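To: structure subgroup
Subject: Chain for Friday's discussion

All,

I'm putting the inputs and outputs inline so they're searchable in the archive.
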Amino acid sequence: MTRRQLLQWVLHSSWLAFVGIAAGRLFQRNDLVRLQSRKVRVCTLDQLKTSSSGGAQANVGGRQIFVRVEGEDIRALDLRCTHGNCTVRLVHNPEERFICPCHGGMFSIDGSVITGPPRKPLAEIPVRLEGNDVFVLDLS
């Protein structure tokens, strides 16, 4: 084996090792770890059921959310207006609804649009109940 052949063999081997390591890191599957770290406890089911507004507001990843019990289901809404990205406010006059302070859009308590300018309903956030604790996924 000549020096040139030895050098080529070393370079090819190191290139293959680099590609193998890079591909291994690229295709690692740690989705479960990421999902677990993004799960945020918001409140307890008892707090939701005894709340005067029928729900609870919380800050998750810098976003305001509203969690409420709807029959047998627990639903969470992202309180960012789908029109201008402003945070909507819950108003109890005379019915509960969300009002956008930026452009006056109104949403019902379930997040559907009552009056524009928003055309899309408030975004729902995945909710998980573990025992008595209510968790949402931090989507930020």
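Points worth raising on Friday:
Residues 61 and 140 are 6 Å apart (CA to CA).
The chain is about 25% helix and 35% strand.

D.
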